[in-house]
TrEMBL record:
Signal peptide: none annotated. One of its GO terms (molecular function) is hydrolase activity. InterPro entries: AB_hydrolase_1, AB_hydrolase_fold, Carboxylesterase_BioH, Peptidase_S33. It holds the Pfam family Abhydrolase_1. PANTHER family: HYDROLASE ALPHA/BETA FOLD FAMILY, PIMELOYL-[ACYL-CARRIER PROTEIN] METHYL ESTER ESTERASE. This is Alpha/beta fold hydrolase. The keyword Transferase does not apply. Residues 47-295 form the AB hydrolase-1 domain. It comes from Streptomyces andamanensis. Transmembrane segments: none annotated. The keyword Hydrolase applies.
Length: 306
């Protein structure tokens, strides 16, 4: 999901301003000593690791974990410098985040896992599968933006975002006011994020309530992380080499799209066309977080991968 550019509870370097380390028993130590928050739930036997969106956000998969609790051994985690993970100064690179994800897998003793990535997390999960296909049993790619350049989707996304927010003129006006403001209070940063995230939900009556749930608890956005990883994608995604690597990927992939996502779903066609073992499910009434509008259908799509 495209993240709001705020410092939130984080300092200017993207680390938590005065944040605390993950609680004992809920941390993964990476090979460079960074502590990541992690949480393991579920009664199923299939190991499933969830990769949250952003970049620079935190795990918001409580509903997904509950939805799949009887089918999977579910691990949620906050990416480095984000959410409940310990403060750090990076490095903010895709390669580093792939290594962090593999550290989470290894920490819980899983030789192979099913990866479920959402939005930016879908890119991360795909990158891990490309780097370590022998450690990935299946990949569930949710609401990603494909393997083409950002120009394949970002201009349409910006247009669709403003059009959906404009369905409530007062909401759009308030978001613009906050977006154009200089220094903001922490509550104003959170309000701006909630207004932005409300555009992700096609049900306009309940969109604001859904977005507020995303921001509860609120950890702030790791701005330096978001800027660096978005910049890296803009420079390196959409290459012939990436498409060729996807064509060689011998891992079953389930692509799950919300038919009413404001990011054009045609952007994902490039990935679907390249993968040799792929199944695609479109949930027509869903937006960017398809488990919100169509939980039963979303569960079925993920269960098929498990």
């Amino acid at each position: 999901m495209t993240s709001t550019r705020t410092h939130g509870a984080h300092g200017p370097d993207g680390g938590h301003g005065g944040g605390t380390a993950p609680p004992p028993g809920e941390q993964v130590i990476t090979d460079d000593g960074v502590r990541l928050w992690a949480c393991r739930t579920g009664q199923g036997t299939a190991p499933l690791v969830l990769c949250h969106g952003g970049p620079g956000l935190w795990d918001m998969f409580g509903d997904v974990a509950a939805l799949l609790a009887d089918r999977a051994d579910v691990v949620r985690w906050d990416q480095r410098g984000c959410g409940r993970s310990a403060p750090c100064d990076g490095p903010w690179t895709g390669e580093r985040f792939v290594a962090d994800l593999d550290a989470v897998r290894a920490h819980f003793g899983f030789p192979r896992v099913t990866l479920l990535g959402h939005s930016w997390g879908a890119q991360l999960a795909l990158s891990h599968a490309l780097a370590h296909p022998e450690r990935v049993a299946a990949l569930v790619y949710v609401s990603g933006t494909g393997i083409g350049p950002d120009t394949d989707w970002h201009p349409a996304y910006r247009e669709n975002f403003r059009a959906r927010l404009a369905e409530d003129p007062a909401r759009l006006a308030r978001w613009r006011e906050l977006a154009d403001r200089g220094p903001r209070t922490e509550e104003e940063r959170r309000e701006a994020a909630v207004l932005r995230w409300s555009a992700e939900f096609p049900d306009r009556e309940h969109a604001l309530a859904h977005a507020r749930r995303m921001a509860d608890p609120w950890f702030g956005v790791a701005e330096s992380c978001a800027a660096a990883l978005n910049g890296e994608r803009a420079r390196t995604w959409g290459t012939p080499e990436l498409a060729a690597a996807c064509r060689r990927l011998d891992v079953p992939v389930v692509i799950v799209d919300g038919g009413r996502d404001i990011r054009p779903r045609t952007a994902v066609d490039s990935l679907a066309a390249a993968l040799p073992r792929v199944r695609r499910t479109v949930l027509p009434g869903a937006g960017h977080l398809p488990w919100v509008e169509e939980p039963a259908a979303f569960r079925d799509a993920v269960a098929a991968a498990l």
